[in-house]
Design a protein that fits this description.
mainly beta, 140 residues, 1 helix, globular, Lipocalin
Length: 140
């Protein structure tokens, strides 16, 4: 229960103010992240098994594009992003321009929070309140 309240607090904090963490993670012109796994309480499968291709492209000007393709559909979402550090934990926060079913969060708004598992992997926080757990890997 504490984790849910912490996540809700983090989302409120990100919607009321933004804190840019100027570190080595956002010095390049663009960053590309690829969805590598999707987990839910009943199973864990890679995106190739699910026939989903998803990428996050982060530009140096704090603009991002998220694309997802399946066998029958494709989506493109965009917005702004920022890096945050709270209690030595690094986060990547996306602020979408419009609502979408692809946005996974615990507060039903247009923000999505990811936590750094390592410098090359991020995991969404939606799974903390019962949603899917999406894992992305940074590629050069």
């Amino acid at each position: 229960m504490k984790k849910i309240f912490a996540l809700i607090g983090l989302v409120i904090l990100t919607s009321s103010c933004t804190v840019n963490d100027t570190n080595e993670l956002n010095n390049s012109t663009t960053e590309s992240w690829e969805l590598i796994s999707i987990e839910n309480p009943s199973n864990s499968q890679s995106n190739s098994i699910l026939n989903i291709s998803e990428h996050l492209i982060l530009q140096n000007d704090s603009i991002f594009t998220r694309t997802r393709q399946t066998n029958s559909n494709s989506w493109v979402l965009n917005g702004t992003y920022n890096y945050m550090t709270v209690d030595k934990t690094k986060y990547l926060v996306f602020h979408y321009n419009k609502e979408s079913d692809l946005i996974g969060n615990c507060s039903n708004n247009k923000n999505e929070v990811f936590i750094f598992d390592s410098n090359n992997e991020i995991i969404n926080t939606w799974f903390e309140c019962g949603g899917l757990k999406l894992k992305y890997r940074k590629f050069e």
